[in-house]
Protein backbone atom coordinates (compact mmCIF):
# COMPACT_ATOMS: atom_id res chain seq x y z
CA UNK A 1 0.00 0.00 0.00
CA UNK A 2 1.59 3.26 -1.11
CA UNK A 3 1.27 6.31 1.15
CA UNK A 4 -1.60 8.55 0.09
CA UNK A 5 -0.64 11.92 -1.38
CA UNK A 6 -2.25 15.16 -0.29
CA UNK A 7 -4.06 15.39 -3.62
CA UNK A 8 -5.81 12.05 -3.19
CA UNK A 9 -9.30 12.19 -1.71
CA UNK A 10 -10.00 10.00 1.30
CA UNK A 11 -11.76 7.16 -0.50
CA UNK A 12 -10.20 4.33 1.52
CA UNK A 13 -9.85 3.89 5.28
CA UNK A 14 -7.81 1.35 7.22
CA UNK A 15 -9.65 0.22 10.37
CA UNK A 16 -7.94 -1.68 13.21
CA UNK A 17 -9.67 -3.32 16.17
CA UNK A 18 -6.72 -4.51 18.27
CA UNK A 19 -7.45 -7.22 20.82
CA UNK A 20 -5.29 -9.30 23.12
CA UNK A 21 -5.04 -12.20 20.67
CA UNK A 22 -6.10 -10.90 17.26
CA UNK A 23 -6.23 -7.65 15.36
CA UNK A 24 -9.38 -7.38 13.26
CA UNK A 25 -8.55 -5.15 10.31
CA UNK A 26 -10.93 -3.65 7.80
CA UNK A 27 -10.74 -1.72 4.57
CA UNK A 28 -13.57 0.76 4.09
CA UNK A 29 -14.82 3.79 2.29
CA UNK A 30 -16.40 6.37 4.58
CA UNK A 31 -19.76 4.79 3.68
CA UNK A 32 -19.15 1.02 3.41
CA UNK A 33 -16.98 -1.73 4.87
CA UNK A 34 -15.22 -3.26 1.85
CA UNK A 35 -13.00 -6.05 3.20
CA UNK A 36 -11.90 -7.59 6.48
CA UNK A 37 -8.97 -9.75 7.64
CA UNK A 38 -7.82 -11.08 11.02
CA UNK A 39 -4.14 -11.28 11.98
CA UNK A 40 -2.40 -12.20 15.24
CA UNK A 41 -1.84 -9.07 17.33
CA UNK A 42 1.84 -9.99 17.59
CA UNK A 43 2.25 -9.32 13.88
CA UNK A 44 1.82 -5.59 14.55
CA UNK A 45 5.38 -5.71 15.88
CA UNK A 46 6.79 -7.00 12.59
CA UNK A 47 6.46 -6.40 8.87
CA UNK A 48 3.87 -9.17 8.61
CA UNK A 49 0.99 -6.85 9.52
CA UNK A 50 1.94 -4.28 6.88
CA UNK A 51 2.04 -7.01 4.24
CA UNK A 52 -1.38 -8.31 5.33
CA UNK A 53 -2.89 -4.81 5.14
CA UNK A 54 -1.30 -4.28 1.73
CA UNK A 55 -2.79 -7.53 0.40
CA UNK A 56 -6.22 -6.61 1.78
CA UNK A 57 -6.14 -3.25 0.00
CA UNK A 58 -4.73 -4.56 -3.25
CA UNK A 59 -2.12 -1.81 -3.03
CA UNK A 60 -4.73 0.97 -3.17
CA UNK A 61 -3.58 3.99 -1.12
CA UNK A 62 -5.54 4.79 2.03
CA UNK A 63 -6.30 8.35 3.04
CA UNK A 64 -7.06 7.67 6.69
CA UNK A 65 -6.85 5.16 9.52
CA UNK A 66 -8.93 4.60 12.66
CA UNK A 67 -8.12 2.23 15.48
CA UNK A 68 -9.30 1.03 18.85
CA UNK A 69 -7.13 -1.07 21.11
CA UNK A 70 -7.19 -2.82 24.48
CA UNK A 71 -3.41 -3.45 24.32
CA UNK A 72 -1.43 -0.23 24.98
CA UNK A 73 1.85 -1.71 23.75
CA UNK A 74 0.19 -2.81 20.51
CA UNK A 75 -1.37 0.64 20.12
CA UNK A 76 2.09 2.18 20.02
CA UNK A 77 3.30 -0.44 17.55
CA UNK A 78 0.30 0.14 15.29
CA UNK A 79 0.81 3.91 15.30
CA UNK A 80 4.45 3.47 14.29
CA UNK A 81 3.57 0.94 11.59
CA UNK A 82 0.83 3.09 10.08
CA UNK A 83 3.06 6.16 9.97
CA UNK A 84 6.20 4.48 8.65
CA UNK A 85 4.60 2.06 6.19
CA UNK A 86 1.63 4.08 4.94
CA UNK A 87 2.18 7.69 5.99
CA UNK A 88 -0.99 7.64 8.13
CA UNK A 89 -1.59 9.17 11.55
CA UNK A 90 -4.54 7.18 12.95
CA UNK A 91 -7.59 8.56 14.68
CA UNK A 92 -7.65 6.60 17.96
CA UNK A 93 -11.00 5.91 19.61
CA UNK A 94 -11.13 6.94 23.28
CA UNK A 95 -13.83 8.43 25.48
CA UNK A 96 -12.49 11.83 24.41
CA UNK A 97 -12.70 11.22 20.65
CA UNK A 98 -16.04 9.39 20.81
CA UNK A 99 -18.88 10.92 18.81
CA UNK A 100 -22.47 9.93 18.08
CA UNK A 101 -23.47 8.83 21.59
CA UNK A 102 -23.34 10.35 25.04
CA UNK A 103 -21.56 8.96 28.09
CA UNK A 104 -23.47 8.34 31.32
CA UNK A 105 -20.69 6.52 33.16
CA UNK A 106 -18.65 7.51 36.26
CA UNK A 107 -15.18 6.86 34.80
CA UNK A 108 -15.50 6.77 30.99
CA UNK A 109 -11.73 6.40 30.57
CA UNK A 110 -12.05 2.84 31.92
CA UNK A 111 -14.45 1.67 29.18
CA UNK A 112 -12.81 -0.60 26.60
CA UNK A 113 -12.59 1.32 23.29
CA UNK A 114 -13.94 -1.67 21.38
CA UNK A 115 -17.05 -1.52 23.56
CA UNK A 116 -17.48 2.16 22.74
CA UNK A 117 -17.21 1.34 19.03
CA UNK A 118 -19.86 -1.35 19.40
CA UNK A 119 -22.19 0.98 21.29
CA UNK A 120 -21.73 3.76 18.76
CA UNK A 121 -22.51 1.50 15.81
CA UNK A 122 -25.50 -0.11 17.54
CA UNK A 123 -26.92 3.29 18.46
CA UNK A 124 -26.51 4.49 14.88
CA UNK A 125 -28.07 1.50 13.12
CA UNK A 126 -30.61 0.27 15.67
CA UNK A 127 -31.48 3.47 17.58
CA UNK A 128 -31.80 3.59 21.38
CA UNK A 129 -32.18 1.93 23.76
CA UNK A 130 -30.07 -0.97 22.50
CA UNK A 131 -27.91 -3.73 23.96
CA UNK A 132 -24.79 -5.20 22.34
CA UNK A 133 -23.59 -8.68 23.31
CA UNK A 134 -20.02 -9.32 22.13
CA UNK A 135 -19.00 -12.98 22.16
CA UNK A 136 -15.22 -12.63 22.17
CA UNK A 137 -12.46 -13.56 24.61
CA UNK A 138 -14.92 -12.26 27.19
CA UNK A 139 -18.69 -12.07 26.79
CA UNK A 140 -19.58 -8.40 27.23
CA UNK A 141 -22.91 -6.63 27.34
CA UNK A 142 -22.98 -2.91 26.56
CA UNK A 143 -26.07 -0.78 27.06
CA UNK A 144 -27.13 2.44 25.35
CA UNK A 145 -30.09 3.95 27.21
CA UNK A 146 -33.16 5.63 25.76
CA UNK A 147 -31.38 9.00 25.81
CA UNK A 148 -28.70 7.63 23.48
CA UNK A 149 -25.95 7.46 26.11
CA UNK A 150 -23.61 4.61 26.97
CA UNK A 151 -24.67 3.74 30.48
CA UNK A 152 -22.76 0.60 31.49
CA UNK A 153 -22.40 -3.08 30.86
CA UNK A 154 -21.66 -6.60 32.02
CA UNK A 155 -18.50 -8.70 31.63
CA UNK A 156 -18.41 -12.51 31.86
CA UNK A 157 -15.73 -15.06 30.89
CA UNK A 158 -15.80 -16.08 27.23
CA UNK A 159 -16.80 -19.53 26.07
CA UNK A 160 -13.31 -20.59 25.03
CA UNK A 161 -11.82 -19.07 28.19
CA UNK A 162 -14.17 -21.18 30.31
CA UNK A 163 -13.55 -24.47 28.50
CA UNK A 164 -9.78 -23.86 28.32
CA UNK A 165 -9.76 -23.18 32.07
CA UNK A 166 -11.55 -26.46 32.74
CA UNK A 167 -8.99 -28.30 30.61
CA UNK A 168 -6.01 -26.61 32.27
CA UNK A 169 -7.23 -27.02 35.85
CA UNK A 170 -8.47 -30.62 35.71
CA UNK A 171 -6.69 -33.85 34.89
CA UNK A 172 -9.38 -35.58 32.82
CA UNK A 173 -11.24 -32.85 30.93
CA UNK A 174 -10.03 -32.38 27.33
CA UNK A 175 -9.47 -29.19 25.38
CA UNK A 176 -12.48 -28.86 23.08
CA UNK A 177 -13.50 -26.87 20.05
CA UNK A 178 -16.68 -24.87 20.63
CA UNK A 179 -19.59 -26.12 18.52
CA UNK A 180 -23.32 -26.58 18.89
CA UNK A 181 -24.82 -29.68 20.49
CA UNK A 182 -28.55 -30.34 20.25
CA UNK A 183 -29.33 -32.30 23.38
CA UNK A 184 -29.01 -30.73 26.83
CA UNK A 185 -27.87 -34.15 28.07
CA UNK A 186 -24.22 -34.78 27.22
CA UNK A 187 -23.43 -38.39 26.23
CA UNK A 188 -19.65 -37.94 26.50
CA UNK A 189 -17.25 -35.74 28.42
CA UNK A 190 -16.85 -33.48 25.40
CA UNK A 191 -20.62 -33.18 24.89
CA UNK A 192 -21.14 -32.47 28.59
CA UNK A 193 -18.60 -29.62 28.38
CA UNK A 194 -20.27 -28.27 25.23
CA UNK A 195 -23.69 -28.28 26.90
CA UNK A 196 -22.25 -26.35 29.83
CA UNK A 197 -20.63 -23.82 27.50
CA UNK A 198 -23.14 -23.35 24.67
CA UNK A 199 -26.48 -24.11 26.37
CA UNK A 200 -25.25 -22.59 29.62
CA UNK A 201 -24.20 -19.34 28.02
CA UNK A 202 -27.44 -19.10 26.07
CA UNK A 203 -29.25 -19.30 29.41
CA UNK A 204 -26.92 -16.65 30.84
CA UNK A 205 -27.63 -14.33 27.90
CA UNK A 206 -31.41 -14.78 28.14
CA UNK A 207 -31.41 -14.20 31.90
CA UNK A 208 -29.25 -11.08 31.75
CA UNK A 209 -31.27 -9.56 28.91
CA UNK A 210 -34.43 -10.07 30.97
CA UNK A 211 -32.79 -8.27 33.90
CA UNK A 212 -31.55 -5.44 31.67
CA UNK A 213 -35.01 -4.88 30.20
CA UNK A 214 -36.47 -4.66 33.69
CA UNK A 215 -33.73 -2.28 34.86
CA UNK A 216 -34.21 -0.01 31.83
CA UNK A 217 -38.02 -0.23 31.95
CA UNK A 218 -38.15 -1.56 28.38
CA UNK A 219 -40.46 -4.44 27.45
CA UNK A 220 -38.56 -4.94 24.20
CA UNK A 221 -35.48 -3.41 22.61
CA UNK A 222 -32.91 -4.38 19.98
CA UNK A 223 -30.22 -6.80 21.15
CA UNK A 224 -27.30 -7.04 18.72
CA UNK A 225 -24.83 -9.94 18.82
CA UNK A 226 -21.27 -9.58 17.55
CA UNK A 227 -17.95 -11.36 17.96
CA UNK A 228 -16.63 -14.72 16.85
CA UNK A 229 -19.35 -16.85 18.45
CA UNK A 230 -22.27 -14.52 17.71
CA UNK A 231 -23.96 -16.68 15.09
CA UNK A 232 -23.58 -19.87 17.13
CA UNK A 233 -24.87 -18.36 20.35
CA UNK A 234 -27.80 -16.53 18.77
CA UNK A 235 -29.41 -19.83 17.79
CA UNK A 236 -32.29 -20.45 20.14
CA UNK A 237 -31.98 -17.05 21.85
CA UNK A 238 -35.02 -15.20 20.57
CA UNK A 239 -34.06 -12.13 22.59
CA UNK A 240 -31.17 -11.51 20.16
CA UNK A 241 -32.69 -9.53 17.31
CA UNK A 242 -29.67 -9.00 15.02
CA UNK A 243 -26.23 -10.46 14.30
CA UNK A 244 -23.47 -8.10 13.13
CA UNK A 245 -20.03 -9.78 13.08
CA UNK A 246 -18.24 -6.57 12.04
CA UNK A 247 -20.01 -4.18 14.41
CA UNK A 248 -16.74 -2.90 15.95
CA UNK A 249 -15.24 -2.07 12.55
CA UNK A 250 -18.49 -0.34 11.58
CA UNK A 251 -18.16 1.77 14.73
CA UNK A 252 -14.64 2.80 13.72
CA UNK A 253 -15.86 3.72 10.24
CA UNK A 254 -18.66 5.81 11.74
CA UNK A 255 -16.17 7.54 14.04
CA UNK A 256 -14.27 8.70 10.95
CA UNK A 257 -17.51 10.01 9.47
CA UNK A 258 -18.26 11.95 12.64
CA UNK A 259 -14.82 13.58 12.56
CA UNK A 260 -14.85 14.12 8.76
CA UNK A 261 -18.51 14.70 7.80
CA UNK A 262 -17.66 16.22 4.42
CA UNK A 263 -16.26 12.86 3.18
CA UNK A 264 -19.48 10.90 3.71
CA UNK A 265 -22.85 10.14 2.18
CA UNK A 266 -26.00 8.98 4.04
CA UNK A 267 -25.52 5.53 5.57
CA UNK A 268 -27.85 2.70 4.49
CA UNK A 269 -29.33 0.40 7.11
CA UNK A 270 -27.44 -2.76 7.99
CA UNK A 271 -29.21 -6.08 7.37
CA UNK A 272 -30.33 -7.70 10.59
CA UNK A 273 -28.75 -11.08 9.85
CA UNK A 274 -31.00 -12.87 12.38
Could you explain how this protein is built, in words?
The chain is α/β, with parallel strands linked by helices and 274 residues long. The protein folds into 2 domains: 13-92, 2-Layer Sandwich (Nucleotidyltransferase, domain 5); 109-247, ATPase, nucleotide binding domain (Nucleotidyltransferase, domain 5), CATH 3.30.420. It is 35% helix and 22% strand. Strand 1 and strand 2 (22-28) form a beta hairpin. Helix 3 crosses helix 7 and helix 4 (159-169) crosses helix 5 (189-216). The chain starts with 12 loop residues before the first strand and ends in a 15-residue tail after the last helix.
Structural class: alpha/beta
* CATH evolutionary superfamily of the largest domain: ATPase, nucleotide binding domain
Q: In CATH, what is the class of the largest domain?
A: Alpha Beta
Mean pLDDT: 90
Tell me the fraction of residues in β-strands, as a range: 15-25%
Based on DSSP secondary structure assignment, what is the total number of beta strands?
Answer: 11
Low-pLDDT runs = 2-9
Order of helices and strands: EEEHEHEEHEEEHHEHEH
Short description:
This protein has 274 residues and is an alpha/beta fold. 35% of the residues lie in helices and 22% in strands.
